Amino acid sequence: MMLFKLIHYAWRSIMRNKARSILTVFGIAAAMFLFTFIEGLQNGVKAATESSATQNMLIVYQKSRFCPATSSLPERYADVIRRMPEVESVLPVKIFVNNCRASLDSITFKGVPEAAVTDGRVPMTIIAGSAEDFKKRTDGALVGQRLASRRGLKVGDRFTVGTVGVQVSGIFASTVPGEDNLAYSHLEFLQRARGVDSLGHVTQFEVALKSARDANTVSRRIDADFKSDEIATNTKTHKAHIASATGDLLNLIRFTRWLGLLCVLVVLALTANTIYVMVQDRVREHAVLQTLGFRGRQLFFLVVTESLLLALFGGALGTAVATALLEYGNLGLGAEGVQISFLLSPIVIVIGLAASALTGLLAGLLPALQAATAPIVDSLRRA
């Protein structure tokens, strides 16, 4: 019962100066919004580079080429790669991207053989439209659900990026991180597209291995087989390919984690300053409470509770706004045809709220200790 009374008293103390408390809550919310948003971006990077769905996948690219527009491999290479005993399947892919540089609105088309949509080489679940309509239309496209939501697309809509125009035959979800932020079209259609004109050539091959343990061996063999052929190749694991394509971007994203930690320190300083001012304003009040029987530990708990309440309200508000943006904003970063989605997960929400609680607790410790140990006589003399 005493515990609830102390919490109620702490709440009433916070509400005495509504303007100060509201400004503090909004300041905390802003910092925690940025912290949670950054954690969502970090989560997306981790999912893209460590996904179990691509652990046994190799990407065969043209040697010394980076942007998809500069990589062109003969489609016949697929037959050579497919004959290797460690290889489970080979997917020739033609990529068209509206912007090779890092962009929040990068659109990537992946042209694949029609059969790949149904034989499992393209891991997707069609949630609207149908694969049959995709097969019937040479300009049909299957659009990832994040891309469809971001661009407001639905089945039957026309969709044009640069010189490539398609009709949405279906919308799909995927277990591969980032895949739901791109669109699949027919390989030959994309090869023949105006301004592309690369019939018989593809951007890359996605090679699925029977075992991820064979990745290094098969990579070296593929590059050795085509070393003296028409075009030399550079084969990497899916993770290494993403790291290579988005190297500078990933370094920048990793740096943002320090920005997130800085946000936590800002919250700590802001909350500590507010609680300190509140304690200084109520020195005589705390002395009176002590004369009425309040013990030092009860005053300590009272001040820490005020700090926690402010931090948790602000943290919950900032985390909720960031969560809504991550969940419904369908945000993603694209670079050189690689898509990295901003991903929400329960751990992101837990980290945001835990960071709020921890900073609230730390911010209130020193003011609480001051309130609990201040001599009663000296406090009563304060004006």
Walk me through the structure.
This protein has 383 residues and is an alpha+beta fold. The protein has two domains: 182 residues, no CATH class; 168 residues, no CATH class. The protein contains 13 helices and 14 strands. The strands form three sheets. Strands 1, 3, 4, 5, 6, 7, 8, 9, 11 and 12 form a ten-stranded mixed β-sheet that branches. Strand 7 and strand 8 form a beta hairpin. Helix 9 runs parallel beside helix 12. It starts with a helix and ends with a helix.
What structural keywords apply?
single chain; 2 domains; 383 residues; alpha+beta; elongated; two-stranded antiparallel sheet
Write the layout of secondary structure elements.
Layout: H1 2-14, H2 18-50, E1 57-62, E2 73-74, H3 77-82, E3 87-97, E4 108-112, E5 125-129, H4 131-136, E6 140-144, H5 145-151, E7 158-161, E8 164-173, E9 183-186, H6 187-192, E10 201-202, E11 204-209, H7 215-225, E12 233-237, H8 238-245, H9 247-281, H10 283-291, H11 296-328, E13 332-335, E14 338-341, H12 346-373, H13 376-381
Parallel strand pairs: 4-9, 6-8
Antiparallel strand pairs: 1-11, 1-12, 2-10, 3-4, 3-11, 5-8, 6-9, 7-8, 13-14
Helix pairs in contact: 1-11, 2-9, 2-11, 2-12, 9-11, 9-12, 11-12
